[in-house]
Design a protein that fits this description.
heterodimer, A: alpha/beta, Rossmann fold, six-stranded mixed beta sheet, B: mainly alpha, about 0% strand, globular
Chain lengths: ~375, ~325
């Protein structure tokens, strides 16, 4: 029996060796993105490292970026598993090794940017950041002094957190429990700043903050029960990140405590069940939909790599959030921005200067600024 | 009588093949992984540039796996390796702004201190190794959250010069040679294997088992400190989850390399190198093929269970036949 097993293994090795030596011209299937098919006609490959490809924010992000690549004639490679600095650096190196000529990532903080810039510069690969604003002058200089820095797309995280709190205030809440992102990201600092700003302006109080029990719904549910137990007068919960995992647990815990509708809920980042939650009056506001940033970076990169850059300088562009405050808002968002693409492949094709020489950087900025549910509905004749 | 002899002959042959298979399996596994991924990636994984990246990505793992060999051969675990890397890295990053040489020494010193503490808890106080080191992991991760309050601690610009593949190769090669000599030929290595094979008999033979364990954990900690220093150079900063899950990668690497799960006399140094390389190529190859996080975790888990089940069953059968 063991002779057979050993023989089988050695035969497998021999078979692999023969196949490996016999030819190399296989079509590259090394590009994968969340379910979409990859382009086949171009040598241009761009890479994205992101935390996931399947949730309510990362899923549309990847689909939009794929649509941009398909429309403009490029290939997209996506890597996930970037939950720490070491893995993020490895992902970037692997994307470059995979032949990507431009890579995009969400840096953990300004401290990791010099390293990312150094890797890309050595490899002669363009790089850019999504969901990230360059906070310090030194990292701003590191990036802008590099000829390979394409730019960064960022959202106004101070505004998003402020708006979430504003929603709670409008709903009558003032004593808030907060679920926050772990310290470690500039996003966290900005969202905290937005929350504090709203607290000052609207005379609200964050009574308790949890940054630990956000990874699973069970943990979030237990945390809510503890919060209510410790602060029975708590009348609002803001989820400033990790909404995908937190929100269902928060809703369930409030349901168990018979506090749905009495304790107001607002969150940043969308969730698959938000339409149902709005319909049942379980949440008061969601701010998110900021998933087109990578597509804009793709537009910049592909134009550059095709030899028709939209701009010669690195850029810093503010992307738009979408605010949902009712079931109708949520339904429209789901129908026209989630189930369909807010920008089709044909629309992206028109953003390629190679295919449409009249497209300019200003046109791109106008497109970005106009992004909203009503804009998509108008463009796609859904009004 | 003749029938009995025939049966005994065929069972000896069977044991011989089993022994050969157990020894050859890790090499074959490495070959399969390299060739398999190179085929599916159209040769991208075996390009020189990618091989250099695989080495850079596996450098820290190679170091800590070689050090962990001394512990696992004694049937001891260390679940705080990753947290030690993180803490040593954070200290190095912080001190590097004052002096890079002192940052280097501090990283190793911090790792050594943590290792000695683990050694004391398990070796001297007799607390179960897994529990003691798991508790240490929680403590260190909590301390890291406090230390890295602003999120990350950036390194001094001068440290980037140390992110040199040739330098790392020399360090790795020298480290491997030293560990090999100690593990295979030095009395300390033999004592480690003896403890794994039979602790009571080893004690009765006059070996100071406590000292062996403490030295093992101290060496592990110091090595994790060294790995932490180079990890923060590679990433440019330390953060609260630097070194996350490295202890599991070490365990998987050693098992894939053919290390018996309980250590003992069958422990070989080659397990560390082969296992770390298999894991490095596996991680790199899966990313090159675009596999997401969850498929990667599932794949690693399945491979781990398969290899463990296969080799554990065979070793058990082999040892059982030897006793008969």
């Amino acid at each position: 029996m063991l002779k057979k097993v050993a023989a089988l293994f050695l035969a497998a090795v021999l078979a692999f060796s023969l196949v490996g030596c016999s030819g190399q011209a296989q079509s590259s299937s090394g590009t994968q993105s969340s379910g979409a098919s990859s382009s086949s006609s171009s040598d241009i490959k761009i890479g994205l490292t992101i935390y996931a490809t399947t949730d309510a924010t990362s899923g549309p992000m990847c689909k939009n970026m794929q649509a941009a690549c398909d429309g403009m004639g490029a290939k997209l490679v996506i890597t996930t598993d970037n939950q720490d600095l070491e893995k993020e650096v490895s992902n970037i190196e692997n994307l470059i090794a995979n032949g990507c000529k431009a890579v995009f990532c969400l840096p953990y903080s300004d401290n990791s940017i010099p390293r990312i810039a150094s890797i890309c510069e050595k490899a002669g690969v363009y790089f850019g950041f999504y969901w990230y604003d360059l906070a310090t002058k030194s990292t701003h200089d590191v990036c802008y002094n590099s000829k390979y820095f394409l730019g960064n797309i960022y959202e106004d995280d101070v505004w998003s957190a402020y708006t979430a709190m504003q929603t709670l205030n409008k709903a009558g809440a003032s004593k808030i429990g907060m679920f926050g992102l772990p310290t470690g990201r500039t996003t966290t600092t900005k969202r905290d700043e937005g929350i504090q700003k709203a607290c000052k302006e609207y005379n609200m109080n964050v009574l308790v903050t949890d940054r630990v029990n956000t990874n699973t719904s069970d943990a979030a549910a237990s945390s809510v029960e503890s919060m209510i137990s410790a602060y029975p007068n708590l009348d609002g919960i803001v989820i400033a990140g990790m909404t995908q995992t937190c929100l269902p647990g928060v809703i369930q815990a409030l349901k168990n405590l018979h506090l749905n509708g009495k304790v107001k809920v607002a969150c940043i980042d969308f969730n698959e069940n938000q339409t149902e939650y709005f319909e049942k009056g379980l949440i008061n506001g969601v701010i998110g939909g900021h998933f087109t940033g990578c597509a804009w970076l793709a537009v910049l990169a592909i134009n550059k790599l095709q030899g028709t850059p939209l701009t010669d300088k690195a850029v810093s562009i503010q992307d738009q959030f979408i605010v949902l405050q009712s079931a109708e808002d949520a339904k429209n968002y789901t129908s026209y921005l989630y189930n369909e693409l807010p920008y089709t492949k044909d629309e992206f094709a028109k953003m390629s200067k190679k295919l449409n020489s009249s497209f300019t950087y200003d046109d791109l900025l106008k497109t970005i600024k106009a992004y909203s549910v009503s804009d998509v509905m108008t463009r796609h004749n859904k009004t | 009588m003749e029938q009995k002899n025939n049966k005994s002959l065929s069972s000896n042959n069977s044991d011989r093949w089993m022994g050969i298979f157990i020894n050859v399996f890790p090499f074959v596994g490495l070959l399969i992984v390299i060739i398999g991924f190179s085929i599916f990636s159209s040769g991208a994984t075996i390009r020189l540039s990618n091989s250099i990246e695989v080495f850079n990505q596996s450098f820290a793992l190679l170091l800590v796996t070689a050090a962990a060999l001394f512990l696992l051969s004694q049937d001891c675990l260390d679940m705080s390796i990753g947290a030690t890397i993180g803490m040593a890295g954070a200290v190095a990053a912080y001190i590097s702004k004052t002096s890079i040489p002192i940052a280097f020494i501090s990283a190793i010193a911090v790792g050594l201190l943590i290792g000695l503490t683990n050694g004391f808890l398990h070796g001297v106080l007799g607390i179960n190794a897994m529990i003691a080191t798991l508790a240490m992991q929680f403590i260190l991760r909590g301390l890291l959250l406090i230390v890295c309050q602003s999120g990350t601690i950036g390194i001094a610009i001068g440290m980037y010069a140390l992110d040199n593949t040739a330098l790392k190769f020399v360090i790795c090669a020298a480290f491997m040679v030293v560990c090999y000599l100690f593990f295979q030929y030095h009395i300390y290595g033999k004592q480690c294997k003896a403890i794994g094979a039979g602790k009571t008999a080893t004690i009765q033979s006059g070996v100071n088992v406590t000292r062996v364990k403490v030295i093992g954990y101290a060496f592990m900690g110091a090595t994790a400190g060294l790995a932490g220093f180079f990890t923060v150079i590679r990433t440019g900063a330390a953060m609260y989850n630097t070194g996350n899950m490295v202890e599991f990668d070490v365990l998987i690497a050693l098992i894939l390399g053919g290390m018996p799960i309980n250590g003992g006399a069958d422990s070989h140094f080659r397990s560390a190198i082969i296992g770390a390389l298999i894991l490095g190529v596996l991680n790199n190859g899966m990313i090159m093929l675009g596999l997401g996080t969850y498929p990667q975790l599932i794949t690693k888990g399945l491979i781990f269970i398969f290899v463990l089940a296969l080799t554990f069953t065979m070793r058990y059968q082999l040892n059982k036949n030897k006793r008969l």
